[in-house]
Amino acid sequence: MLKKIIALKSMDQSLKKKVLVYTPENLSQLISLYKENYIPMGSAYSYIAASFNDNTPSIDLSKLNRILSYSRDEKLIEVESGCTLRKIYNITAKDLLIIPVMPGHSDITIGGCIAVNIHGKNHYREGSFKNHVLSIKLLNSNGDIIEVHNGEEAFEKTLGGFGQTGLIISAKVTLKRVHSLTLEETVIRVKNIKETVRKMKSMSDTYDYMYSWNDLTSSRHLGRGAIIASKLQKEDDLIFKQIPVLRNLQQLSLFNRVPFALLNKFLSPLLNQLYYLKELKNRVFYCSYEESIFPIHQKSFYYGLHGKRGFLEMQSIIPYDVWEQYIDEFLNVYKTSEELIHLFSIKLFSGDGRYIQFDGEGVGLSFDLPNTKNAQEFLASIDKLNIKHSVKTNISKDSRLPREVIEKTYPEFNDFQENLEKKNTGTHLANLFT
Predict the structure, then answer these.
(1) Do residues 227 and 202 make contact, with C-beta atoms less than 8 angstroms apart?
(2) N or C: which end of the chain has fewer CB within 10 A?
(3) DSSP state, 226?
(4) Residue 136: predicted pLDDT
(5) How would residue 365 be classed by pLDDT, with cut points 50, 70 and 90?
(6) d(CA 362, CA 234)
(7) Are strands 2-9 and 16-23 parallel, antiparallel or unpaired?
(8) Contacts with 409 (C-beta within 8 Å, 6 or more apart), sequence order
(9) According to the 3-state scheme, what is the secondary structure of 94-152?
(10) Angle CA 165–166–167, to nearest 5
């Protein structure tokens, strides 16, 4: 078994550590480590330092990446937790089968998808990843392999549980049949954030995937942007039938940062204006599944533009009944701050989140800003706003999120922690929330 010290960084660049990493090559080697304290690691693409910390070794699960079974007729695949979405896609796409919910990058592992209960650009239709997992095998603290099934309490605690219920060994995932892997994509310009949400809600029955890009760097055109909506082709109106293969990607350029921030108060407004004028014209076109679902593949250079200090990201779900009041208050806080949000995006959510799952019904906001003292203070103000309106913040995206905010916005958080401690069902994992 390979064992070495590796320099790891969180995707937002807020944490950098040299960590002892074990890389088991099979299940028996993995089980031999169960008595130790450790943190499981997939592709290490987490915005926060979810797979490493100061004093605890990490276990790299990338070698445990086998396809255990695959049924085209049943539309079902079972894989080990280190298997990436790209690997699965390149096998199932030949049969016009896909995992219904995909995050923004294809090299995320199945274990990572389960640990944070990922969502895609189609949450309003397909929900989160948990809706498409039948069962999961876990290695618990006794060294036993147990299986939990969709609908069981242990399953709910595992999806989005950051590995606290046990180390994820493998999972059975359902697939969706499609007629083509070319999508019809529509770009529709919007004047502001409220119009964005109104139009997205009216379009949700027509389009399979939707997200927005909004510009918050321009005080004159605050919130203008575009909705990017796409739909899978139907059998009767197929234009393209080719099945593109997802390329092997090198490590994201986020670790090859320029020494200073190019996204700043001078350049960001100019870059956003150019992007809006050149790329976001009203239009309809056809594109590949990769271009539509994984836009980060073509734009990973973005992460290198924040300089060595990196950036902070916040993602939240605002319930529909408080949405308009919330966004008014959010923008008031933003206008009186000295911060500049470089990237702002909206998705629609339709689900039911248990325990510490980032899930629910409402408007999903995501935004990035530089990692500075002023940014920390601005986000602390938004934390108060989120507590006031019972708004969940995505734990897997926000590296500075205080425990107090989690406790007050995730109603079942304390129950989740207490039950784990009582039953001692988890692995010997360093507690992410201490």
Answers:
(1) no
(2) C
(3) E
(4) 97
(5) very high
(6) 28
(7) antiparallel
(8) 386, 387, 390, 391, 392, 393
(9) HHCEECCCCCCCCCCEHHHHHHHCCCCCCHHHHCCHHHHEEEEEEECCCCCEEEEECCC
(10) 140
Residues facing residue 69 across a β-bridge: 78
- Compute the distance between CA of residue 410 and CA of residue 353 in angstroms, rounded to an integer: 9
Q: Is the CB of residue 337 less than 8 Å from the CB of residue 374? A: yes
* CA R_g for the chain: 21
pLDDT at 171: 97
Characterize the bridge pairing of strands 97-98 and 2-9: unpaired
Strand 133-139 and strand 145-149: pairing?
antiparallel
Nearest to 40 by CA among 161, 131, 173, 129: 161
Q: What type of residue is 102?
A: M
Mean pLDDT of 215-231: 93
Each residue's pLDDT tens digit, 99-137: 999 998 888 999 999 999 999 999 999 999 999 999 999
Angle, to 10 degrees, between the axis of helix 323-336 and the axis of helix 373-388? Answer: 160
Count of beta carbons in the 10 Å neighbourhood of residue 255:
14
Could you tell me which residues come within 8 angstroms of residue 321 by beta carbon, excluding any fewer than 6 positions away? none
Q: Model-level pTM? A: 0.89
The DSSP element (H or E) to which 79 belongs, if any, is strand 76-80
Nearest to 225 by CA among 59, 122, 345: 345
Q: List, in sequence order, every beta strand (DSSP E) within 129-234.
A: 133-139, 145-149, 167-174, 176-177, 182-190, 209-214, 225-232
Answer yes or no: is pLDDT of 373 > 50.
yes
Angle 323-336/193-203 helices, nearest 10 degrees? 150
- Residues 401, 379 contacting (CB under 8 angstroms): no
State the SS3 of 364-379. Answer: EEEEEEECCHHHHHHH
Distance CA 139, CA 309 (A): 37
Is it the case that residue 163 has pLDDT exceeding 90? no
Biggest CA-to-CA distance, the chain: 61
Helix, strand, coil percentages (3-state) for the chain, rounded to 5, are 30, 25, 45
Q: What is the mean pLDDT of residues 305-313?
A: 80
The residue assigned the tokens 């734009």 is 299
Nearest CA to 392 out of 355, 367, 420 is that of: 355
